[in-house]
TrEMBL record:
Keyword Ribosomal protein: no
A GO CC annotation given for this chain: cytoplasmic vesicle
Domain WDR11 first beta-propeller: 22-318
Name of the molecule in the record: WD repeat-containing protein 11
GO biological process: animal organ development; cilium assembly
InterPro entries: Beta-prop_WDR11_1st, Beta-prop_WDR11_2nd, Quinoprotein_ADH-like_sf, TPR_WDR11, WD40/YVTN_repeat-like_dom_sf, WD40_repeat_dom_sf, WD40_rpt, WDR11
Length: 1210
C-alpha cells in the first residue's frame, strides 16, 4: 500500500480581516511584483498573479500607516542579489525595514512618536540603494540608511508636511505638500540636507477666487464642467499668501510629478485634477467631474504613456489618456485627458468603502483596489482591436503602437501584446506629427477585467472552534479545518494548511455565540438574537453538514421566546449534547438520533460551568458485545448441523445482523460534571436514555464562583471569576489552587494528543499556557505588555499550536510560546505556485535569469533546466524548474519585466529601440551610397520613436516638436506679464523669433520693462549675419554671463546661432540639464552629440555618480562600443554581453568575465561558449572547464559568433 502523508505540521500564520482607517494609505505594489498592504499592526504580502497571501509580517505595535518596497534600480549579482526588502512606518513613528522572505526585521528606526507622514526609497543613486527618506510629523524630513538604521541628516520646515513627491527626471528636485501650499526644493542631495527653505507657493483653491480678482458672489453656483472650472483657475499658484476669504483650507488631496513628461505636476482635488506646467507655474489642463459625477479619491500618473489611473469614491477605477493634439484643427486650448476605460463600482456602505488603489509599476496595465472590509480586487486592463461602439462620443481613436521592443509590428499582427501599457496603446501624437501611412496601426478599445479577488475575515467578534484532532484512525482523510462564527450569522470554515477559505456557510440570522464539532465533517453552532423587553430571545441551534452544506434546526420548533443559550457541550464520543441556558434548567440531547433525552426539573441548580468526562465504558461494552456474538454464532452452528445448505443461509443472515448491529452505534456510558452558583460540583451519568445523579463534592473555600472546567485523563481543572486555577489530581485525590491574579478565567482548554497535559487559559486581558503535570505556566501574553489586541476566543489547532481570535479582526495561529511571528515564505504550503525569483537563493535567482536571457549554446530555446549541463543540488534545480513552469516563452524585455529589473528594463527599452533604428538607418545609407560610413550621432528617423517620458533620450525631431507644442500651450495659458516674458524667452531659445517679437511688443507702456522689451524686439528683428554685429553681441553675451546673467547671455548667443557656445557656458556653470535641452532643440546632430557626451562624462564623475543615466545618454547617441566598455568596467555583465551579442563584437575581456560568472553559477555549457569567444584568454578557462574529460566538445568550438554587423566609428 502506498504510504499516505498528511501535512500535520501547520505553519504559524495570520488570517486577516477588515482594515483600520489608519491603514488607508498603507499599500504599495513593488517592482518585485508583489503587493504589500497594512492591516492593523500587521503587513500582508499578496501575490497579485495568483491572488493569495504569501506572508504576514508582525512586529509593529501600532497601526501601520505607510509601506514602501525598495526599488530594483541597480545591477544584480551575487554580492547585491535579488532581495525582497520593504519599509513600513506605523502610527507610533516607528519604521521597520523587513527581509520579507524570512519575515525578519533588518533594522528598526524611531525618531518621534507621531505617525509617519510619507516614505520613499531613493532610486537614483548608483552608489547606494539603502537610502530611505521619511516625513516625521509635524515638519521634519529625515534621510535614513535603511540597511543599518543610521540617520544621515534631518531638516525641519516652517509648515506641517503632509507628503512629498520626487521629480522622476531630476533627482535634486522634490516638492512637499504642506498644510498651506507647496514647497519646491531644488537642491536635494543624499550627502547633506537641503540648504534653503525651498520656494514656497500657495494654492488658491480651484473654487475660491484667486487673490487678485474680485471674490465670486456667494449666490453663484459652484462651477461644473471643464470650461467653467478653467475660467476659475486662470491663476492657480501665487507667491503671496491668499486672503482669508479666497482660500480657507488647502483641500488638495494629492500632489505628484508626472513621470510621462518633464516639469509637469498634477494636483488632485475631490472634483478636479489640475495639470501644472512648472516652468510657468500655470494650469495647462483640467480633468473636471460633472455635478452628478463621483468625486476622486486618488490618481496615479503612468510613466509609459501620458495617462492617469483615477480612483473614485464608489470604488470605480477609470483610465484617462491624454488626447492627441493632432486631431483638432483649431489651436489647442489645453491638455485634455479622455476617459478610455472604467471598471465596475463596488457597493459602498458605512463600513465598506474604497481606500486606495495601486498599479503595477512594471507593466502599468494592472490595478489593485483595497477596500476597507479587507478585500483586494485585482483588475487587469485588456486591449482588443475594433472600432468604438459609440462613434458619437467624439473621442479620437486610440491606436496600437508602431513597434514592440524596438521591432516594428507586422501587418498580420492579430493580437495586441497585453504585456504592458506601452505595448497596448501607441503614443499621444503631438502637433506637427502625422500618422505614418505605411504603419500597420490598429484602432484599440480598452476594458478592465477582474482577474483576482482576495477577501478577509468579517468584522469581529468571532467564535472559533478547531475540528477534532488528528488521530491514527483519521489520518487518511484528515483536513485541519477551523470553524469561525461571525457577528452576521455566517460560519466560515478555513483550511489551516493553506490559510484559504474552505467554505462560507450562511447558517444563522444573528451573531454566532459558539460552535462544537460532532465529527470531522459536521458541527453544531448556536446563535441568540437581541433580547426583548422581558429578557427573552430567539435561540438558533443548527446542525451543519460540511460536504453537502445542509443545515437543519437541531431543536426543531423550539427556540422562540426563551432565555438565551449560555453554552453547548458535546460528549467525548460525540453521542450526547448538553444545552445550558441562562435562567432555565439544562437540556440533554442524543446527537445521533436528534432526540431530547431529558429536560431537567425546575428545581435543578443553576449551572455556571460544565464539562464532559473523557472516561467511558465503550471498550468494555464492545468486548461484551463481541463475546455475546461469538456465543450466538457457536450455538447457531451446533443447531444447524443437519443441513449444510441451511447453515450457509443462516451464516449469511447472521453476518448481515452483526453488520447492522455494529453500524448502529452502541450507547456507551458517559459522565459530565458541573458546578452551581455556590461552587458545589455535581456528577451525572448518562447511558442510553437513562440519566443518573452521582456524587456531589462540596465547594472549595479558596475558590470564588466557578467560571469554567476542563478535564483530561486524571486531571480536572477549575477556573473562577477571581483568576484562581484549581488543579485536581483524581488518581492521587489531591487538589492544588493557584491564584493567577489575572481576573476572570473566561475559558480553559486541554491540548489534543495522548498524554499531552498542556492547558490553554483565556482571561479578559490575554491568555496563558500551563503545564498541568508540573503545575506551572509555560507562556503568557497580555494586552498592553506584549500585544496591542484583546483576545476574543481561543482554541488548540494542533498539539503544539494555539489559535487566537482577536478584536483587531485577525485570527492568529501561533506556537505555544504565543509570540506573534512572521513565517518563512519558502516554507509555505501554497495552493497555487507563485512566480517570484526573489524567493530563490541568490545564486539560483541569477542562474534562472542567465538561463532565460541567453541560450546561444543550444540551437533552440528551452524552458527545461534539466536539459542543460548545470551542476547544482537537485532541490535547488527543482525550485528553479518550478519557477520556469509558471512561465511561457518570452523576449528579453518581458524577462526583465518578470524579474522587475528596473534599471535593466530602462536600459533595454532604449537599447533595443536605438539598435533597431541605427540598423535601419545604416541599411538605408549603405544602399544609397555604397560603403559610405554613417557618422556617429546622425540620428535615424524610424517609423516609431521613444515616447516623451524618456525626455532627452528621444529622437531630436520628436523632441523639438514636443517643445514647440508645449510652448504653444504655455502661450495660450499665460495670464500675467511674468508668464508672457517666460514664453518669449523660451521661443527665442527655440528659434521662433517672429512669435517672440509679437509677445515682446505686448508689454504695456506702464510696465517698468516696457523700454527694455521694445529694444529687445528691435534687436531680434534687425539681427543680421554681418561680422561686426555678431562679434559685438557675442562680447556682450560673454560679459553678461561673467556678471551672473547666464540666461540673458545664453539667449543672445542663440540669436546669433552660437547655441553650441551657449551650451558650453551652461555646462561650465553647472546647468547640465538646460544645456542638454538646448543641444536637443538647437544644434545639429554632430554638435549636439558632443554636448551630450560631455554630459555623460559629468554623470560618471564620482561626485555625481549617476552612471546608469550616462549609459542611456550614450545609447541614444549610438555609442554602443563605449557603452559596452562602461558596462564591463562596472561589472554589469548580463546587459553588456547581451548588447554585444546584439550589436557589436566587443572586447574579449567582457566575454571572459561573463564566462567566469556563468561558471560560478554552475552553467558549464554557457561558460564554455563565451570562453571560446574570448580568444587566447579564454583558452585557459576552457581547459579548466573540461579538465580530465579528454578535450573540448566539437559543438562549442564549431559554433560561430553571432553578429548583427553594426559598426560605428568611435
Amino acid at each position: 500500500m502506498i504510504p499516505y502523508t498528511v501535512n500535520i505540521k501547520l505553519a504559524a500564520r495570520t488570517l486577516t480581516g477588515t482594515l483600520n482607517l489608519q491603514n488607508k494609505t498603507a499599500v504599495d505594489w513593488g517592482w518585485q511584483g508583489l503587493i504589500a498592504q497594512g492591516c492593523h499592526s500587521s503587513i500582508l504580502i499578496i501575490d497579485p498573479k495568483t491572488a493569495q497571501t504569501i506572508q504576514v509580517l508582525e512586529r509593529h505595535k501600532a497601526n501601520v500607516v505607510k509601506v514602501k518596497w525598495s526599488r530594483e534600480n541597480y545591477y544584480h549579482n551575487l554580492s547585491s542579489p535579488y532581495c525582497l526588502r520593504l519599509a513600513s512606518g506605523d502610527a507610533s513613528g516607528k519604521i521597520i525595514v523587513w527581509d520579507v522572505v524570512s519575515g525578519t526585521a533588518h533594522c528598526e528606526i524611531q525618531e518621534h512618536s507621531k505617525p509617519i507622514g510619507d516614505l520613499e526609497w531613493l532610486w537614483n543613486q548608483d552608489a547606494s540603494r539603502d537610502l530611505l527618506l521619511a516625513v516625521h510629523p509635524p515638519n521634519y524630513i529625515v534621510l535614513w540608511n535603511g540597511d543599518t538604521g543610521t540617520k544621515l541628516w534631518k531638516k525641519s520646515y516652517a509648515e506641517n508636511i503632509l507628503s512629498f513627491s520626487f521629480d522622476p527626471f531630476d533627482p535634486s528636485n522634490m516638492a512637499l505638500l504642506t498644510s498651506e501650499g507647496i514647497v519646491f526644493i531644488t537642491d536635494f542631495s543624499y550627502s547633506k540636507p537641503p540648504g534653503s527653505a525651498g520656494k514656497k507657493v500657495y494654492i488658491a483653491s480651484p473654487h475660491a477666487s484667486p487673490a487678485h480678482t474680485k471674490p465670486a458672489p456667494a449666490t453663484a453656483p459652484a462651477p461644473t464642467g471643464a470650461k467653467k472650472a478653467l475660467n476659475k483657475v486662470k491663476v492657480l499658484i501665487t507667491n503671496e499668501k491668499p486672503t482669508a476669504e479666497a482660500v480657507t483650507l488647502n483641500d488638495c488631496l494629492q500632489l505628484s510629478y508626472l513621470p510621462s513628461k518633464r516639469n509637469h505636476m498634477l494636483l488632485l482635488y475631490p472634483r478636479e485634477i489640475l495639470i501644472l506646467d512648472l516652468e510657468l507655474s500655470q494650469t495647462v489642463g483640467v480633468v473636471a467631474i460633472e455635478r452628478s459625477g463621483v468625486p476622486f479619491i486618488q490618481v496615479i500618473p503612468c510613466a509609459q504613456r501620458d495617462a492617469l489611473y483615477c480612483l473614485h469614491e464608489n470604488g470605480c477605477i477609470t483610465l484617462r489618456v491624454c488626447r492627441s493634439t493632432v486631431a483638432t484643427e483649431e489651436s489647442v486650448q489645453e491638455l485634455v485627458y479622455d476617459l478610455r476605460s472604467q471598471c465596475d463600482a463596488i457597493r459602498v456602505t458605512k463600513t465598506v468603502r474604497p481606500y486606495r488603489m495601486v498599479i503595477c509599476p512594471v507593466n502599468e496595465n494592472k490595478a489593485a483596489l483595497m477596500v476597507s472590509d479587507g478585500r483586494a480586487m485585482l483588475w487587469e486592463l485588456r486591449a482588443h482591436t475594433g472600432k468604438a461602439a459609440n462613434p458619437s462620443s467624439g473621442l479620437s481613436p486610440l491606436y496600437s503602437p508602431v513597434s514592440f521592443c524596438g521591432a516594428p509590428l507586422g501587418p498580420n499582427q492579430k493580437k495586441i501584446q497585453d504585456l504592458s501599457l506601452n505595448s497596448m496603446i501607441g503614443q499621444t501624437l503631438i502637433a506637427g506629427e502625422t500618422l505614418p501611412t505605411s504603419s500597420h496601426q490598429q484602432e484599440v478599445q480598452l476594458k478592465f477585467l477582474l482577474t483576482g479577488l482576495l477577501s478577509g475575515l468579517p468584522l469581529p467578534p468571532f467564535a472559533i472552534r478547531m475540528c477534532p484532532p488528528l488521530t491514527t484512525k483519521n489520518i487518511n482523510h484528515y483536513q485541519p479545518l477551523l470553524a469561525v462564527g461571525t457577528s452576521n450569522g455566517s460560519v466560515l470554515v478555513y483550511n489551516l494548511t493553506s490559510g484559504l477559505l474552505h467554505k462560507e456557510l450562511s447558517v444563522h440570522s444573528c451573531e454566532v455565540r459558539g460552535i462544537e464539532w460532532v465529527s470531522l465533517t459536521s458541527f453544531l453552532s448556536f446563535a441568540t438574537s437581541a433580547p426583548n423587553n422581558m429578557g427573552l430571545v430567539r435561540n438558533e441551534l443548527q446542525h451543519v453538514d460540511l460536504p453537502t452544506g445542509r443545515c437543519f434546526a437541531f431543536r426543531g420548533e423550539r427556540g422562540n421566546d426563551e432565555p438565551p443559550i449560555e453554552m453547548i457541550k458535546v460528549s467525548h464520543l460525540k453521542q450526547y449534547l448538553v444545552v445550558v441556558f441562562r435562567d432555565k434548567p439544562l437540556e440533554l440531547w442524543d446527537i445521533r438520533t436528534g432526540t431530547l433525552l431529558r429536560e431537567m426539573a425546575k428545581n435543578f441548580p443553576t449551572v455556571t460551568a460544565l464539562e464532559w468526562s473523557p472516561s467511558h465504558n465503550l471498550k468494555s461494552l464492545k468486548k461484551k458485545q463481541m463475546a455475546a456474538r461469538e456465543a450466538m454464532a457457536r450455538q447457531t452452528v451446533s443447531d444447524a448441523e443437519q443441513s449444510s445448505v441451511e447453515s450457509s443461509v443462516i451464516s449469511l443472515l447472521q453476518d448481515a445482523e452483526s453488520k447492522s448491529e455494529t453500524s448502529q452505534a452502541i450507547s456507551a456510558r458517559e459522565h459530565f460534571v458541573f458546578t452551581d452558583t455556590d461552587g458545589q460540583v455535581y456528577h451525572i451519568t448518562v447511558e442510553g436514555n437513562t440519566v443518573k445523579d452521582g456524587a456531589r463534592i462540596p465547594p472549595d473555600g479558596s475558590m470564588g464562583s466557578i467560571a469554567c472546567i476542563a478535564w483530561k485523563g486524571d486531571t480536572l481543572v477549575l477556573g473562577d471569576v477571581d483568576g484562581n486555577l484549581n488543579f485536581w489530581d483524581l488518581k492521587a485525590r489531591l487538589s492544588r489552587g493557584i491564584p493567577t491574579h489575572r481576573g476572570w478565567v473566561k475559558k480553559i482548554r486541554f491540548a489534543p494528543g495522548k498524554g499531552n497535559q498542556k492547558l490553554l487559559v483565556m482571561y479578559t486581558d490575554g491568555a496563558e499556557v500551563w503545564d498541568t503535570k508540573e503545575v506551572q505556566m509555560v507562556s503568557s501574553m497580555r494586552i498592553g505588555r506584549n500585544v496591542n489586541y484583546r483576545i476574543l476566543d481561543i482554541d488548540w489547532c494542533t498539539s503544539d499550536k494555539v489559535v487566537l481570535a482577536s478584536d483587531d479582526g485577525c485570527i492568529r495561529v501561533l506556537e505555544m510560546a504565543m509570540k506573534s511571528a512572521s513565517y518563512r515564505m519558502d516554507e509555505q504550503d501554497l495552493t497555487d505556485p507563485v512566480w517570484c525569483p526573489y524567493l530563490l537563493l541568490p545564486r539560483a535567482a541569477l542562474t534562472l535569469k542567465a538561463f532565460l536571457l541567453l541560450q546561444p549554446w543550444s540551437g533552440t530555446f528551452t524552458m527545461d533546466v534539466t536539459q542543460v549541463d548545470y551542476s547544482e543540488k537537485d532541490e535547488i534545480k527543482g525550485l528553479i524548474q518550478e519557477q520556469l513552469n509558471s512561465l511561457s516563452n518570452s523576449c528579453d524585455n518581458s524577462i526583465l519585466m518578470l524579474f522587475g529589473d528596473e534599471s535593466d528594463l530602462h536600459f533595454w527599452t532604449v537599447a533595443s529601440h536605438y539598435i533597431q533604428s541605427f540598423a535601419q538607418a545604416r541599411q538605408l545609407t549603405v544602399s544609397a551610397a555604397e560603403g559610405q560610413a554613417q557618422s556617429e550621432g546622425v540620428q535615424p528617423s524610424p517609423q516609431s520613436h521613444l515616447d516623451i517620458c524618456h525626455d532627452v533620450l528621444c529622437e531630436t525631431s520628436y523632441f523639438q516638436k514636443f517643445q514647440l507644442d508645449r510652448v504653444h500651450l504655455q502661450e495660450v495659458k499665460r495670464s500675467s506679464y511674468e508668464h508672457t516674458k517666460k514664453c518669449a524667452d523660451q521661443l527665442l531659445l527655440l528659434g521662433q523669433t517672429d512669435r517672440a517679437v509679437q509677445l515682446l511688443l505686448e508689454t504695456s507702456a506702464d510696465n517698468p520693462s516696457y523700454y527694455c522689451d521694445s529694444l529687445k524686439a528691435c534687436l531680434v528683428t534687425t539681427i543680421t549675419s554681418s561680422g561686426p554685429s555678431q562679434s559685438t553681441i557675442k562680447l556682450v553675451a560673454t560679459n553678461m554671463i561673467a556678471n551672473g546673467k547666464l540666461a540673458e547671455g545664453v539667449q543672445l548667443l542663440c540669436l546669433i546661432d552660437k547655441a553650441a557656445d551657449a551650451c558650453r557656458y551652461l555646462q561650465t556653470y553647472g546647468e547640465w540639464n538646460r544645456a542638454a535641452w538646448l543641444a536637443k532643440v538647437r544644434l545639429n546632430p554632430a554638435e549636439s552629440s558632443d554636448v551630450l557626451k560631455r554630459w555623460a562624462e559629468h554623470l560618471c564623475s564620482p561626485q555625481v555618480n549617476h552612471k546608469s543615466k550616462a549609459i542611456l545618454v550614450l545609447l541614444s547617441l549610438g555609442c554602443f562600443y563605449k557603452v559596452g566598455e562602461m558596462l564591463h568596467s562596472f561589472k554589469s555583465l548580463c546587459c553588456g554581453i547581451s548588447l554585444t551579442h546584439y550589436a557589436h563584437k566587443l572586447i574579449e575581456a567582457a566575454f571572459l568575465e561573463y564566462a567566469r560568472l556563468l561558471r560560478t553559477l554552475g552553467l558549464r555549457e554557457g561558460a564554455a561558449l563565451w570562453a571560446s569567444r574570448a580568444g587566447s584568454a579564454g583558452e585557459q578557462l576552457m581547459e579548466e572547464l573540461f579538465q580530465g574529460e579528454g578535450g573540448i566538445p566539437e559543438a562549442i568550438l564549431g559554433e560561430e559568433v553571432v553578429e548583427l554587423g553594426l559598426e560605428s566609428k568611435e
